[in-house]
Design goal:
Layout lengths: L4 H4 L2 H11 L10 H7 L6 H17 L9 H16 L3 E9 L2 E9 L4 E11 L9 H21 L5 E8 L7 H8 L3 H5 L1 E7 L10 E2 L4 H14 L4 E2 L9 H6 L4 E5 L8 H7 L23 H19 L1
Parallel strand pairs: 3-4, 3-5, 5-8, 6-7
Antiparallel strand pairs: 1-2, 2-4, 6-8
């Protein structure tokens, strides 16, 4: 996650059943069987962690990082692209220059769906130069990748068109995502019905934060977590400072998840979520210790499932 200098130093069915039991109703009159049939698959956290292991190996082999313009970033992109190509996606690479170095965005489209209604999910793939960036943002990148692969495994054919993205040079100021949005025509921007952003979703002392930008997307995530019995809070630490910001500025509905960076977990938050109060959500934020040891498996598992839940729910 790119922060300003001051910051650097299956649930769907459960929610539906709860609503019906309390006398509520669901628009569209979906039956519990219908809800279950439409539910996203469970995302195996072991698969997500396997991607993180690969990203760690790539960083280790390339000077300890996966930063923009460095060999580790391009190797990370090649790894993700190969997985998507093998799974039947149509992939494209958008090249750009930032700070005198070449950067890349990777875009993957799943065949089918209404091209006038596009649901996007994305994450930045670059790390800072000081570390391998496994939580920031291997965690979001790996969860989005595994969700995309789950779409392929399920042979999912949603009503809307699905597009996944991995952004370059986020750590330099949202360069890759901004380049992508700015290069879209107004007509193509209008076709994106929602963009979901996942930046740091496995913090070792995690919180469960939901973006409050678009009400419908926000509700999708909050309802998912309510079904798990996990309370959430509104994300404020990196508000507007990750790759959803260019989309929001262009009028695209946005939302996402976050588990915290350098801010300190309060006693109230520790009582609610566990973990250690008085300690940062991620003590290795933007540091060399942001390795595969810097991940909370429970948070990564829950959030990976939440990514898939939102992709399925919003693309039906």
């Amino acid at each position: 996650m790119k922060l300003p200098v001051s910051w650097r130093a299956s649930a769907a069915a459960t929610v539906a059943a709860a609503t019906l039991l309390t006398g509520g109703s669901i628009a569209g009159a979906a039956t519990p069987a219908d809800v279950e049939a439409a539910a996203a698959p469970d995302i195996p956290v072991a698969n997500v962690k396997a991607h993180l292991t690969q990203l760690q190996s790539i960083a280790t082999a390339n000077g300890g990082n996966r930063a923009h313009g460095r060999p580790g970033y391009k190797a990370s992109l090649d790894y993700v692209k190969a997985k998507l190509d093998a799974a039947g996606y149509t992939t494209s690479i958008q090249q750009f220059t930032a700070s005198g170095r070449t950067g890349y965005n990777l875009i993957a489209d799943w065949p089918g769906g209404d091209a006038n209604q596009v649901v996007m999910a994305g994450a930045h793939l670059d790390s800072v130069s000081s570390g391998p960036g496994i939580n920031d943002n291997g965690s979001g990148s790996a969860a989005v990748l595994e969700t995309a692969l789950a779409v392929s495994r399920a042979g999912y054919q949603p009503t809307k068109h699905l597009r996944f993205a991995w952004w370059g040079a986020e750590e330099l100021g949202l360069v890759g995502s901004r380049r992508y949005v700015n290069n879209l025509s107004s007509t193509d921007r209008a076709k994106i019905s929602g963009y979901l952003n996942f930046d740091m979703i496995g913090s070792p002392n995690p919180g469960y934060f939901v973006y409050d930008d678009d009400p419908a997307i926000e509700k999708t995530f909050k309802d998912y977590y309510a079904g798990l019995g996990v309370p959430t809070e509104i994300e404020t630490e990196g508000d507007g400072r990750s790759d959803h910001a260019p989309f929001k500025s262009a009028g695209v509905p946005v939302g996402g998840l976050f588990t915290g960076a350098s801010r300190t977990k309060t006693a109230a938050q520790a009582a609610k979520w566990g973990g250690t109060s008085g300690q940062s959500f991620d003590r290795c934020y933007h540091s060399s210790c942001d390795t595969t040891s810097n991940i909370n498996d429970t948070a990564l598992d829950r959030n990976s499932d939440a990514v898939a839940h939102a992709v399925w729910e919003l693309s039906e």
